[in-house]
What does this fold into?
Amino acid sequence: MRSLCAPNKRVLMMGIIAVLLVLLLAGCGGGSKGSQDSSAGDGQGVPAREKIIILSASDVPNIDPGVGQDYGSTTALINMYDTLVFPDHDGNIKPWLATDWKASEDGLTWTFQLRQGVKFHNGDELTAEDVVFSMERLLAMGEGFAFLFTDLIKEAKAKDAYTVEFTLNKPFGPFLSIINRLFVLNKKQVLANLKPGPYGEMGDYGKDWLVTNDAGSGPYMVKELKMQEHLYAVKYDDFWGGWDKDAPDAFKIVGTTEASTLRTMMTRRELDITDQWQTEESLKGLEQINGVGIATFSSGAMYDIMLNTKKPPTDDVHFRKALCYAFDYKTVLEKLFPAQTPAIGPVDSAVPGHNPNLYQYTFNIEKAKEELAKSKYANNPGEYPVEFMWNTVVPDQEKIALLFQSTVEQLGINVNITKAPWLSYIDLVASPETTPNVSIVIHDLLYDEAGAMLESRYHSKSTGTFQQAEWLQDPTIDALIEDALSTVNKEERFAKYQVIQEKIVDLAPTIWAFEQAERRAYQEGDWLIWPTIERVKQGLPVTRVMPYNFYFADFKVYPEKMPK
It folds into this structure.
């Protein structure tokens, strides 16, 4: 310390200058508009670590609101775009871009009053025309969350600069719950970036540009997207919702689930939250790292083992029931996924509209043999091998496949285990012929009631996507789902949901393995405040709507408390 106080003015002056430079650079390390230096920090387009949230995902997000639909993509979208309403942790729907709304008595017309003064990331004001354009674009493209609106929206109209009116083809009880999947784009900005494409005068509708750019008004804006590597987004200073002084200046989504890579990153404090696809072994290893804990919370998701109902031998309902009885639920829950809850049918038991009185399949080889004997494959089951495909992104799925193979062989059924990466699997399930007999997908809740899971999983319009590899295509189920969703009275709607669940269970299109609670390793020190986990610690509910537990503007980061 004495050397710093020595009477050497030159040294003293140099020291003062150095301190000032450090302070200046630290001040520039935040995420304000135009202030990010992609050469700083970890050398991968990330600024200083102290003001950023970093998490891993199964892939780099698709940040086009008309295309992105999976967990990682939707996580990015809710942070870069705004919606008319916002689902909170208590199950309520609160005003967001819309400050007020009303529905006509017949439920066919919904009118929303918009918040004034909202700015897009390029400074343009958000108006009713942008909302209308966003809906029309989504419907025209028919991708992403379009399936929620395709048969529903008759017309979207801007009544004036701040009033939007949606006319529906039919009443839809949970309309307010699904409108949060309409992400509002800047019409002017998208139109300025059109390229030739299949949408007539709209060309490609800006799809090429929106691969690496955003046209949103949300709290964060894209700074860099490197395919197969990461998405890096920074704070938008003029966000209409304002900012807490301790909110993150940026977030980064890293497109990898590789266990050893994530372990190294967590050890070096280069990753804050892992993806939810880590194996139990990986989570146990991560938990051994100083300062790392395991976050567990219910999200309304289901761990579904889907059975292709259009491909022999799983096209026979009795054969499918035999497989349901031949699945060792107890071993899965006790040995492979000990933190999970048994499933009762196709909907998480905590979701409004769930039927708690459903028949529940259990591991019973004798009953499995009885059902197999009723099937058209009873005399020669070994001649019809069952293909079980697991996703290479989720290594624990192979354990499920091997367990399934060992128990089903007791019935004389041959199981061929195959594997595929996620994007290849998505291509395969585009047709019933290429869809495997058996495959696993964790299905998330799109809005907080049973109809969300029933529609996205078992209505015919979701076939050809990862949402429904069962290819159920049952006209009766379709009609019942449509009737329930068109019922405005909530109690009546929920009663109809319960009947639908009974009929689906009887068709046995799925082995409902368990209710999937999210489990992620995270930095649990007091330098990172994750609102969802704080609520879990207090015994409070958290949102089940995917992926609103990762709205980063509500997180808090305290750099001075970060362990070295």
About this structure: The CA atoms of residues 59 and 271 lie 15 Å apart. The mean pLDDT is 90. The chain has 17 helices and 18 strands. The two ends are 23 Å apart (CA to CA).
